[in-house]
Amino acid sequence: MKFTKMHGIGNDFIIIDSEKESLEGIDLSSLAVKLCDRHFGIGADGLLISTPSKTADIKMRVFNPDGSEAEMCGNGIRCFAKYIYEKMDKKKDIISVETMAGVMLPSIIEYKGHIAIVEVDMGTPREIKKAKVKGYDATLVSMGNPHCVIFVDDLNKIDVGLLGAEIETDKMFPNRTNVEFAKIESNKEVTVKVWERGVGETLACGTGACAAVVAGSEAKILERNVLVHLPGGNLEIEWQPDDHIILRGPAETVYEGNSI
Predict the structure, then answer these.
(1) d(Cα 46, Cα 32) in Å, to the nearest integer?
(2) pTM of the complete model beyond 0.85
(3) CATH says 2-111+251-258 is which class?
(4) Looking at domain 126-243, does it have CATH number 3.10.310.10?
(5) Which of 15, 74, 152, 232 counts the most CB atoms within 10 A of its CB?
(6) Which residue among 73, 79, 148, 210 is the active-site one?
(7) Would you list the domain boundaries of the chain?
(8) How far apart are CA 182 and CA 191, in angstroms?
């Protein structure tokens, strides 16, 4: 089974094209668990499946390493857009991608071989509300998938693995949630560490970066055009006047291969 390995600032993915590789009869959840394993598989934060779409240029399905299917993935769709762009006979700078969170429109704004700068209109944030979670003041945001954002003074004092896992599975989140711990650097910069639902601690999360900017802007501690620092690198987030959020950053092809 042929695959492509890609990453967006360290948030890495395995991409398989269902039109080129027969997936009939294959349990995709089990496949994700097998392939994403970093010791006994290829290793990745997620498995992206490319399938035909009736409403867009292409459809992207996202499977987490625990086998659960996610509605959306910000860095994943940026990598996916670069992958699709490279496969197109007639190049399109804007590609429509059907996801469980709706149709997204990633754009290739710079292309240099194995690295591209890709931006995507993530739509509008929804269900923004304040909450008390595990004793912390939090902001809950939906970016097509659920997020819980907590601002802290010192990220080094937060055990992301322990607290992130506890919050992800808290009973107030029946479908579990992604968790972002954020430290304000200035009104235009924020540092974020992420615990992803169904994945664990990751080097970056596109929807998580968006959620952190929304939470900070709503609290009037961040502007609406922000540089987000994550362990794997930086993402630019722009919350536009029409309430649409633009996510911008690099997407890189690592290698192509065959999985047994």
Answers:
(1) 7
(2) yes
(3) alpha beta
(4) yes
(5) 74
(6) 73
(7) 2-111+251-258, 126-243
(8) 6
- Close Cβ partners of 196 (under 8 Å, ≥ 6 residues apart): 45, 64, 178, 202, 205, 208
Contact 76, 54 (CB under 8 A): no
Residues paired with 15 in a beta bridge: 4, 48
Contacts of 219 (CB under 8 A, 6+ apart): 139, 151
Cα→Cα distances 67→7, 22, 36, 257, Å? 19, 19, 9, 22
For the stretch 231-250, pLDDT in tens is: 999 999 999 999 999 999 99
Phi/psi at 52 (5° precision): -65, 155
Which residue of the set 36, 79, 148, 205 is catalytic? 205
Residue pointed to by tokens 């931006």: 119
Q: What is the DSSP letter of 94?
A: B
Strand pairing partners for 99?
Answer: 102
Among this protein's residues, is 79 annotated catalytic? no
Residue 216 has pLDDT above 80, yes or no: yes
Q: Rounded CA gap, 210 and 236, in Å? A: 9
